[in-house]
Amino acid sequence: MQTKYLFNLLLAGFLLIMGCKSGQDKEATGNKPEKADKKTVGAKTKINNKQIEKKAMIKEVQKFMAAYNQEFANFELVETTTYWAAANSGKKEDWDKNAQAKIKLKQFHSDKKKYEQIQKYLQQKKIFPPLLQRSLKIAKLAFSENQLPEKELKQMVKAEKEIERAFSAFRGKIGEKEFSNNELLQMLKKEKDSKKRKEIWNALKSTGEKVGDMLIQLAKKRNKAAKTLGFKNYWEMKIKLQEHDPDQVLKLFTELDKLTVAPFKQVKAEIDKEIAKKLNLKGAEQVQAWHYNNPFFQEAPPSKEVDPDIFYKDKKKEEIVQIASKFFEDIALPIDDIVSRSDLYERKGKDQHAFCITINRSEDVRTLLNIKASAKWMDTMLHEAGHAVYYKFIKRELPHNLKEAAHILTTEGIAMMFGALAKNQHFLKKYVEAKDVDKYKDALLEQRRREQLIFTRWVLVMFNFERQFYLNPDQNLNSLWWKLVNKYQLIPVPENRNKADWASKPHFTIAPVYYHNYLMGELFAAQLRKKLSALDGYKGNPAALNFNGKKKFGAFLKKELFAPGASKEWNQLVKEVTGSELSARAFANEVNWKKEATPAKKTKKVKKTKNP
Fold first, then answer.
1. Domain containing 138: what range?
2. What pLDDT is attached to residue 60?
3. Residue 420 lies in a domain
4. What's this model's pTM, rounded to 2 decimal places?
5. Which of 11, 187, 342, 567 has the fewest CB within 10 Å, making it most exposed?
């Protein structure tokens, strides 16, 4: 028993020792993983919590932006519908309603709490999907401009609408008789007597004297508002809120000045000789501002080789619309629905200019025009239809504030690209059914080149004047205007001229700090033509590209440019669509294009010359 007991005792001890060792082994190997599991669980919990917080934050911002966009859409709808009514009627009561609607829209975007909330959200923007980030940024830009006291907002809107109404209702006078802008421009084109031309030119400019002082006071109000918001002046504020870098824009325009000054001098010398001969002047040095067909010399007069109006002289104004509709239908960008909602012909009291408007950023896109049967109005019809198809094909699933063109310059680029087709050899042959177009092929291309150069030099005047206007509205603006006209357009300053000719341009009121986007749009249009030429396998001058029936062009534009709306920053979209950042290269290629030399016949291999 004792032996057995002792054996059992020893066995128990041995097992106890082994059990302890086993436990130690477990502790050494098993307990630590248990602790590690707790750390892993803790880490996973933190990650899960962060993901939950992130999802909750995204939902919060989505809800906030959905509410913002719905409110924005409601206020904007009132503003666009009242603007349309006022532009069509010209009545004071209609302009007053639009002014009130615009004030309410600005007041909505002056809400400091919403603005601060958007800024707070943007501090965490990296956690949001790209579309939500972009919608927040665009909202911030809208709020930034309107963080002003209600009194100041109302004063500015009231001043703007007062000037806008003056432009809309104004009719120039010759003697005691009043004329519309269209009538005066037609008279200027046909008149050969220099004295009478000067009278017509003065009538076209006379609105400047009426609104000049009003514009100066408005500029001071705008500058005061911009300084309140932390900007040097209104010009700087508008440039930055358009997502431009002021230094980059200045650099680009300086480059364009250098690029175009020599070819423009050559073109203007030719034009002045032609004008002098046509109007029986003693020489080209006698050509003055009123001898050009446009009061600002922003459009090229017809060359001695071809006047584009000859192709439209037998057309009716209604046919201009039909031609445009057929063209856009053939490239899979139909506009019949847009035309049905538009107001297209001249009428008393109606706005004398042209514009495109999206009433609700959805299917309701319209244009206002004053169409005549001319190359100018064919250009304008195609131009405004270009804006319209851009708006029409923006993705409707986008947030409301992204259902807009990527930038002013992208929609202007599209509009200018289509507008230029009014003088395109292929367009004229098929849609205008013009005869003998082929013999004018080179003349039409040279006319297009003239237009590009003349428009560039004109925009340089507007760009530099407006920048200096807001730097110092108290300077002698009449003198500044003519100094710049003389520098960039080489037009002599009229003797003893001291009138507010600059103020007769409505853009200072209705589209302030906007004009540079037209020229940047021309650069974009040149890059688009280059891209579409490559898509079509065309290797000639992109300015002569044939658009007729090219459904692949319409499909490309719809998918790559129109559909994204403002969901991407403009510089990113330009690069994606055209293959390069915005520059003057493609534009320079068009205005300096030379015909490829015809190689001499040789028995040996001929070396080909390349287009520069």
1. 13-147
2. 95
3. no
4. 0.83
5. 11
